[in-house]
Target: YdhG-like domain-containing protein
Amino acid sequence: MTARGPEAGTKKAAPEGSASAEIDRKIAALGDWRGETLSRVREIILQADPDIVEELKWMGTPVWSRGGIVCTGETYQSVVKLTFARGAALPDPAHLFNSSLEGKVRRAIDLREGEAVDAKALKALVRAAVALNLEAKGRPKARRPARPRR
Model:
């Protein structure tokens, strides 16, 4: 479950030790524009689909999932990076993707200090990523051919 409801400003206390509580702590510890930016995109992601689950992976990286990884939220010195696990397969009419464009699977959005987040476009991207994950979950997995007996 998420720590925040689908509407802006409806924050519930996250259970102690949960991924949501750890993300809250990470945001607070940043204490600068990166924390504010990560908090804002987190809010948008959770508004886009209230069934998204927050997780922590890879040494504390915030991850938002539903039917598979939707995106991660990494913080670096000069950017907050949202990496969409299957971004290369997503429509991006607002051209939010501006990083990792050469990858065959992933795409990322680098947000720098002072840059505005296009909430409407980001919500559409998150919803498309969820739909792609759920569609893939509905497909039967490809079966490997049986090995010939010896």
About this structure: Residues 19-135 form a domain with the Aspartate Aminotransferase, domain 1 fold (CATH 3.90.1150.200).
